[in-house]
Amino acid sequence: MSTRIDVAGLHKGFATDKGPLAVVDDVSLQVEDGEFIAIVGPSGCGKSTLMRMIAGFIAPDAGHVLIDGVERTRPGPQGILISQHGSVFPWLTVRQNLMFGLNDISSKQEKAAVADHYASIVGLKGFEGSYPHELSGGMLKRVEIARALAVKPAILYMDEPFSALDALMSLRMRNELLRILERERHTVLLITHDVEEAIHLADRVMVLSPRPTRIQATFEVNLPHPRKLTSPAVQELRMAILKELGVEAEADPVDARA
Ligand SMILES: Nc1ncnc2c1ncn2[C@@H]1O[C@H](COP(=O)(O)OP(=O)(O)OP(=O)(O)O)[C@@H](O)[C@H]1O
Questions:
Q1: Which of 10, 60, 152, 159 has the fewest other C-beta atoms within 10 Å?
Q2: Do β-strands 36-40 and 204-208 pair in parallel, antiparallel, or remain unpaired?
Q3: Interface ipTM > 0.90
Q4: How confident is the model over 236-245, as pLDDT tens digits?
Q5: Does the 1-78+154-253 domain belong in CATH 3.40.50.300?
Q6: Exposed, middle or buried: residue 161 (CB in 10 Å: 0-12, 13-18, 19+)?
Q7: Whose CA is nearest to atom 6 of ligand 1?
Q8: What is the overall mean pLDDT for the chain?
Q9: Of the candidates 228, 128, 221, 124, which has an alpha carbon nearest to the alpha carbon of residue 175?
Q10: Where do the H-state alpha helices sit in the chain?
Q11: What's the whole-number mean pLDDT along residues 107-131?
Q12: What is the pLDDT of residues 163-196, one digit of tens each?
């Protein structure tokens, strides 16, 4: 395996009304090609800032990000960011939104077929001709996820992609994502507040410290897919990660948002 993402000594702070705010404090990490990394950490610790720096949307104050050995200074074509805020075009239908960005396909018919395929993967069959204002928040989120997947980016940056979905749909999207990754092997960086989701999906879970954030602990998830979430191994790992986050682990699933 080769190193896809190489992050060294990243620092970032912001100037605020109350003075300088140190947000990211000396973060280094390597992500191998095809690896799935989940990032968990207390609310407001700097997870999104870290991911946006890695994706090239924010410049670090110090340190560097190499993607495939080349320094990243702005968003590149090999990575797509799915953010909490959403970026579906309101004036385009679901199909047109999904066709957007499929520049490698010249035939319009083929583009539409790919779009419809990804719409059905995320449970939006029958809504291909609908406009965003006709959809619920969860459906919009799924359009966004489908749009990112349809482009088959080498790197998927996912910032709480499933947090707007109900529990069943979130589980379904996780399973679909795993199925897609089995075939297409994207490299994935996922921010989540859901420890169980992190263990379900990732090869490695990184726990970030409170702000200014650092990598506080790393957990390898050496469990084959499909992972049984009720298994003792998953529960043990969940307890260990929650403990690292300073959350008292109980028998029932716990939300790690502080
Ligand atoms: N452009 C900015 N200017 C000033 N402060 C910022 C800016 N962007 C982020 N911050 C601050 O940096 C801190 C970290 O924000 P960030 O969104 O990275 O955290 P997070 O861990 O992703 O949060 P959450 O868990 O709530 O999604 C917060 O205190 C936020 O207010």
A1: 152
A2: parallel
A3: yes
A4: 999 999 999 9
A5: yes
A6: buried
A7: 14
A8: 92
A9: 228
A10: 47-55, 94-99, 108-121, 137-150, 167-184, 195-201, 232-244
A11: 95
A12: 888 899 899 889 989 988 988 889 999 999 999 9
Q: What is the pTM of this model?
A: 0.91
Residue bearing tokens 């970032």? 12
Three-state secondary structure call for residue 188: strand
Give, using CA atoms, the residue closest to atom 18 of ligand 1: 46
Domain ranges of the chain: 1-78+154-253, 88-152
Query: Is-contact 226 10, C-beta < 8 A?
Result: no
Residue 59 is inside which H or E element, if any?
none
What CA–CA distance (Å, rounded) separates 33 from 252? Answer: 34
User: Length of the chain, please?
Assistant: 258
Task: Give the β-pairing of 79-82 and 155-159.
Answer: parallel
